[in-house]
Specification:
It is built from four helices and eight strands, in the order αββααβββββαβ. The chain has about 150 residues and is of the alpha+beta class. The strands form two sheets. A four-stranded antiparallel beta sheet has the order 1-2-6-5, with helices on one face. The protein is globular and about 75 Å long.
Length: about 150
């Protein structure tokens, strides 16, 4: 009888462990591709692609003029080594959400040779399954940052 109960407890324990591991794995990333932040082909806009599906659906429900976009996606003009007179300041522009991307179009065209920093919380995470398992989660969500030169 004790062997039977012991075997049953081992089975329940391994089932529980399997469910926990699968749960961590499935929560870690629904989209294995990293977020893509690039200039459009003509460099007139910034295109953000590889957005996880639930996040993209939520963005599609927002009005393009909603201030949430400014909180989720910031585009900054950054000073360069050759021109330090430029201050780091946000670039004003419009946002458009398509079926697979978010496009930022500045009100003033991007200047050739200038560096722009894109900071976004789209697809941002506390950590992945490996970090959860190792106990290395961060206390806050780390935004995705990418520097682009026009």
């Amino acid at each position: 009888m004790l062997k039977c109960i012991s075997g049953m407890l081992k089975g329940i324990y391994s089932l529980f462990l399997t469910i926990v591991i699968i749960g961590f794995y499935s929560c870690s990333s629904s989209n294995s591709k990293p977020l893509s932040i690039e200039f459009s082909a003509d460099s007139s806009a910034i295109v953000i692609a590889s957005i996880d599906r639930p996040g993209l659906l939520r963005l599609q429900q927002l009005d393009a003029q909603d201030s949430v976009f400014k909180d989720l996606i910031a585009v900054l003009q950054t000073p360069s080594e050759t021109d330090s007179s430029i201050s780091e300041e946000p670039i004003a522009g419009n946002y458009k959400v398509s079926d697979s991307t978010v496009v930022f179009s500045p009100l003033q065209p991007f200047v050739k040779g200038r560096e722009y920093l894109v900071i976004t919380h789209i697809n941002a995470k506390f950590g992945d399954a490996e970090q959860v398992a190792k106990g290395q989660l961060s206390l806050g969500v780390k935004p995705v940052q990418k520097s682009l030169i026009r």
